[in-house]
């Protein structure tokens, strides 16, 4: 074994990956056809959060040894690092076709299906992996998570306790136990395990996320809202749309019909207002929850530096959004809900953008936040500029309709202007507000899509 190889191995074992890279590349320069060196480079680049380069290194290894299954497995891991789930699954299938089935490949498939929220399939693959190797820690870990997601709490509890008893100083095992307890609403115990996971490994982002969520659930109001949002996330999108249309649109409109008594119409207005508030709160759940965490020392410890920066930037638009909603509830004003939704979208996108570690993705999400800011400002200043003059013209026209000779012409003009007013309102306010709402609601999906396409770029 050469001196460079010994030095490289030493650095890898110490976790000094950035220092190990130039040594490994030096070895590759001398032996460019060494498949194992390319695979070592791929794994190293994944550790350095450069998944695109890791994929290139794994593909070079596949080109040098097309009949070997292991390079396909390494490629799958690199693809998973950039959330390319479909291609990762194809790489696992290729590895199985070349080298047969094993527990490592089943663990990869389990992780892929967990990321797709397909809990039953994930559990099935974890079970097959454990049938081949009952002591496979990764399969045991992901099986525990899948059982918790499926609501099989007793089995998940037994599995998590078994992992902890095997290695009580493993950060991932404490994290798994924390998530299972969180699924059962055992918030104080979950928080304790997440804190222990972070004590063992301060860089465990999964435990940091779990600690933040356990602190949020410990708050009675936030906990109730968070549990409701989690329950809704488990429903199909069709059920959510049907529920939203029935409860938020059809029922309030029916109750507010002029033929109903005033008390019934008041109930309709209250339901419509409550539904609008829920929609807005759901949109800003993450920046609002993280903003409340910042108020306590324990909460600040649960948030990383990126999340803290996201909170700082999202506070002002969040405040403006709540002011708009407050004015709408107290004084009315049809454009204020759109303005509130616009500023909530800005808050969500700013929080998402500054919380992202990848600079390339961050810049694009923040560009969307700037567009959202312009639209949100327009929702405040646009109605006086566009709609108020048209409304005043409409009132003047209605005054003239008292003259019988001019009545038909004036009423036709009124109808035309009313149609124009409604059309302008839809195109300049309603549709952009809905676009912003969906943009903010699917900010996670937008971020994941950008991550899949992002080039490697150091932070």
UniProtKB/TrEMBL annotation:
<dbReference type="Pfam" id="PF14559">
    <property type="entry name" value="TPR_19"/>
</dbReference>
<protein>
    <submittedName>
        <fullName>Tetratricopeptide repeat protein</fullName>
    </submittedName>
</protein>
<feature type="transmembrane region" description="Helical">
    <location>
        <begin position="237"/>
        <end position="255"/>
    </location>
</feature>
<feature type="transmembrane region" description="Helical">
    <location>
        <begin position="426"/>
        <end position="443"/>
    </location>
</feature>
<keyword id="KW-0677">Repeat</keyword>
<dbReference type="InterPro" id="IPR051012">
    <property type="entry name" value="CellSynth/LPSAsmb/PSIAsmb"/>
</dbReference>
<keyword id="KW-0812">Transmembrane</keyword>
<keyword id="KW-0802">TPR repeat</keyword>
<feature type="transmembrane region" description="Helical">
    <location>
        <begin position="366"/>
        <end position="387"/>
    </location>
</feature>
<dbReference type="InterPro" id="IPR019734">
    <property type="entry name" value="TPR_rpt"/>
</dbReference>
<dbReference type="InterPro" id="IPR011990">
    <property type="entry name" value="TPR-like_helical_dom_sf"/>
</dbReference>
<keyword id="KW-0472">Membrane</keyword>
<feature type="repeat" description="TPR">
    <location>
        <begin position="171"/>
        <end position="204"/>
    </location>
</feature>
<keyword id="KW-1133">Transmembrane helix</keyword>
<feature type="transmembrane region" description="Helical">
    <location>
        <begin position="267"/>
        <end position="289"/>
    </location>
</feature>
<feature type="transmembrane region" description="Helical">
    <location>
        <begin position="310"/>
        <end position="329"/>
    </location>
</feature>
<dbReference type="Pfam" id="PF13432">
    <property type="entry name" value="TPR_16"/>
</dbReference>
